[in-house]
Amino acid sequence: MDEIRKKKIEREMQRTIATLINSEQVKDPRVLMATIHRVELASDMSQATVFYTAYCTNNERKKLSAGLVSASGFFQSMIGKKMGLRYTPKLRFVWDSAYIKSLEVNRLIDESAPPIEVNSSDDSEFDEESPDHDDQIESDSKD
Q1: How far apart are CA 143 and CA 138, in angstroms?
Q2: The sheet that has 47-53: what strands, in order across it?
Q3: What span, in angstroms and rounded, lies between the C-alpha atoms of 103 and 35?
Q4: In whole angstroms, what is the distance from residue 90 CA to residue 3 CA?
Q5: How many CA atoms lie within 13 A of 29 on its CB side?
Q6: Domain architecture of the chain: domains with CATH
Q7: Across residues 120-136, what is the average pLDDT?
């Protein structure tokens, strides 16, 4: 399959699933406020892995996971209708631990960075007015 077409399908699947969750069209009460980060489509389009996270406890995460698996048939049918694919891939939902780790790394980097000091004496160089070139332009046009 063409790589560009595959990426477009992945993005559209991600958008469709996220829209269905956020618009509360999923009737399962366990599926609540999940964030869909990315979708990876198999090369033969038989399966799609949906990576998600949510701000919740481990117990709530287990319920969310079960809810997403339960609603996967609904997601597949809506993807098929919206995208018009001949074969809709089977959805597999996976907690996106890589995203959580990247947030932790960013937090550690922010904590370890030294604070930036602003020297107020350096502000004087920005106070100078820029030279006015309007006089020169006017004199050139009168000639």
Answers
A1: 9
A2: 35-41, 47-53, 90-95
A3: 14
A4: 19
A5: 0
A6: 3-98 (3.30.300.20)
A7: 53
